[in-house]
Amino acid sequence: MSLHPDRLAVAQMGPNNRADSRAQIVERHIALMEEAASAGAGFVLFPELSLTTFFPRWLIEDEAELDSFYEAEMPNDGVATLFSRGRELGIGFSFGYAELAEEAGARHRYNTSILVDGQGRIAGKYRKVHLPGHSEPQPRTFQHLEKRYFEPGNLGFPTFPSMGRTFGICICNDRRWPETHRSLRLNGADTIIVGYNTPTDHTGHASVDALSLFHNQLSLQAAAYQNSVWVLGAAKCGVEDGSFMLGQSMIVAPSGEIVAQARSVADEVIVATCPVAETVPYRETIFSFEKHRRPECYGAITAPR
Ligand code: CDT
Q: How many CB atoms lie within 10 A of CB 3?
């Protein structure tokens, strides 16, 4: 099978219900990875928290039960087959997971995503900076307790040269902030990858909820155009444990145009040819957002709140 480094895939995932076993979920990753490889893709992106259900929708007070959603090491036995199949196929991949880290003798919880190259080596790691939701339960059917279950990422916005391009990773809510994408681009990214779990009933305003799909598309297209980068978005979607999450996974060119988009809210692979060279004209035109920036005027952006 000949995989091309310019061919990139997004593996949108349907729901991971709480009753699904890790083995079943990893099997689905492998089936999607194989489909991406048979379409010639050298890299495939999976969603945020792709190994579990989106557990921040519940208040979980039992520490051991909460721990069961986290990975204390990566890779681990539960994902070994995914890493070995990626190595066999020579395909790189990225997926999100809940990370339980030991730092300076203390336990820390992060919403994390890693980049793995075609040889199965971890080439990069990112911890979500913009955590949405709340830390205390609210009077609502589904919670969004990311602020309770995760600490804000402490790795900044690093980028990772790998597989012939420079990847920048962000996670879900991060995609709504122009600062995320600008930081990644200024740090050298030509390709931004973002996995997400976006419930469509969470803002508290029906008129805002009604525009969930539009805002997803707007964020990804603006990020691509305003930073002259490729953007890949991978949803975990459909009805997961009773909560509906939007799909609309897509690949966006540096022009801001959508070049591939999922049509379902289930497991689905989309693929596009994404040459890094296509970022160049957008960096070189009269509109070059890099060359003509005026950071001396942007102090308000980085001033403490
Ligand atoms: N997972 C995640 O970050 N979801 C958010 C929705 C939060 S609504 C409180 C998102 O930006 O899609």
A: 19
Phi, psi torsion values for 241, nearest 5 degrees: 45, 40
CB atoms within 10 A of CB 40: 16
**pLDDT (tens digit per residue) in 241-258:** 999 999 999 999 999 999
CA 248 to ligand 1 centroid distance, Å? 15
CA distance 222 to 224: 5
CATH number for the domain formed by residue range(s) 4-302: 3.60.110.10
Residues 179, 180, 186, 191, CA torsion sign: negative
Question: pLDDT tens digits for 195-230?
Answer: 999 999 777 788 989 999 999 999 999 999 999 999
SS3 of residue 269 by DSSP:
strand
Q: Residue-wise over 19-38: b if at least 16 C-beta within 10 A, else e?
A: ebeeeebbebbeebbbbbbe
Q: Measured from the CA of 49, which atom of ligand 1 is nearest?
A: 1
Using CA positions, which residue lies closest to atom 8 of ligand 1? 202
Tokens of 60: 């979980």
For the chain, which residues make up each domain, given as ranges?
4-302
Tell how far the Cα of 147 is from the centroid of ligand 1, in angstroms: 11
What pLDDT was estimated at residue 82?
98
